Structure formats: structure tokens, C-alpha cells
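Form 7-S
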Amino acid sequence: MIPNLRSSSLLDRQSNKRSDPEYLASLVRNADTRFTVLLDHKPVIVSNEARTEASLRWFTLAELVSAGLVVADPFFLGVERTGGAARFAVAINELRIRHLPAALQLLAPAVDLRSLAMQGIVSSEEVSLAGKAKALAHWHDNARCCGRCGAATHLRDGGWRRRCWSCGTDMFPRTDPVVIMLVEHPDRQSCLLGRSGRFAPKMYSTLAGFIEPGEDIADAVRREVMEEAGVEVGDVSYHSTQPWPFPHSLMIGCIAQATTTELTIDLEELVDARWFSREECRHMIEGTHPDGLSGPGRQAIARALLTAFVEGRS
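Output:
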């Protein structure tokens, strides 16, 4: 089974300590602490010349300061489970450092996280760490003002809370639950895949959609499949989950059993949807489909769902 891109186990989040500002300040100053940088939400990496292997680049505080960067309010990611060194993330807007050539040179290359995940050139653990940092950075960018009174908010708990200076309201990073489902034909020999207009040419994937308030997982699966493809679903079973930082979702993978087969496609959501045989799906995963059709990327939970179907484990 292809493992999902999951929450990294490299670090202990220290959630019971990150509300202590003195503790966090001592970690920031520690010579063993390392910082990863997001430049416009893109992680800074190191790679081989051919860009077939890469990893996050980790900086010392001295390296960042010497390049003229101000490390204010870094996001605390946790401490290493082996060794105990702290890891932080720093989010930087490129426009604000264009007058710092040393910093721009230091923070290159910065690569889109989705591309890194889909290419599979960075380990799943490090992609997960970068995803955690990106999700936090995106939330902070959109939570600078209090939703209750409109006043400014300030970062707390190493980036895991914001507090309104006026009314004292606390806000916490959000996670949006999304159902993603492999829909099996009633004959169990084919499955339903769709094409969004955002996909690469000839790529098909599983259906997905956000869970709405007051809705459980199974009901969300049934509603989304009916809305997007016009297919009724009976039994729904859980498969696995995957954090997905685009920008801050939790993908809840399910296997759904269709009870009808006629398709009525919502063309605002999908440009195409169809039933694919198990053999066709195998060719799509292996890149050998005679029509050049392809499936979801290697690190997407949709790939794990489709692989389970191909291997008869769904």
C-alpha cells in the first residue's frame, strides 16, 4: 500500500509547553535550534543539480540575522524526538526583502510545496513539516484582525494562537475537513473517476468535497457524489486520512458503494466523469494507459484510494 502523506512524526510538538514565552525564547536563542524558511509560502530547499532529490534547508539563527533578516514571531514546529533540538519556521514576504541581496541569495531556491509533494523528491516527513508551516502561515495571513470586534490580533504560543488586543478573543489555526472517496460500481469491477478543469491534461482522480456544518462523513460522501456525478451511494467505509496544506485541509478518505450507475455530471465542478475498469486504473497508475490517461500524484491520498481498488483491497 502506498503510504499517505501524513503528519510528521519527526518532532514532538510540545503543545503543553508552547504557551510559555520564556521557554520558546530560550529555544530560539539555543545554538542547536534550526529554522526552515517559507518565502511567499514556498519552502527553501537544497537539491542535487538534476533536482531529482531534495530536502528542506535548515538555517541557524546567526545565518538568517547575518543576511539582514529579522526573525520575529517564528512558528514553533516542535523538538526532535532524537536529539531534542528545536525546529521553527519563518514566513517571509519576498517584496519586503528585495533590498537585501544577501537574503535573496540565501533563500534560493524556494519551490512551490505542491510541486515538491507531487514530484516526490522530498521525503514525506519533510513535506509534512513544510505543510504544517505553510498551513500556519496561511492562517496567520488571514487572521490579523479579530472576527468579533475587528481589532488587531497578536501571535501567541509560538504561532498556535492569536489573541485580540481589544476584546481578548482567542483564535486558533483552522482545519477544514474534506471527504475524498473512491466510488465503486455495483459490480465491484469498476470505479468512478472525474476530471476537474484544474487538473493536468488527461488526468482523472477520485471525487472530493468539503463537509458542511451539521453533516457527518457518510452523508457528505453521498451528497458530494450525487451533486457532482448524479450517482446514488449506499454503504460508506473509512479508509485513511491525510493532512493537505492547500491551504489547511484534512482529507478523509472513504470507499463508497454506488447503488446507481447513470451519470449526470455537474459541469461547474467537473469537465468529465466516467466509470473505469480495474485494468484501466492500473494502467493509469503505471503510466501505460493506451489513451495517455493518468491518475493522481504519488503522494496524494487519492492515489492510495485508487491503488487499493486496483489491488482489490478496497
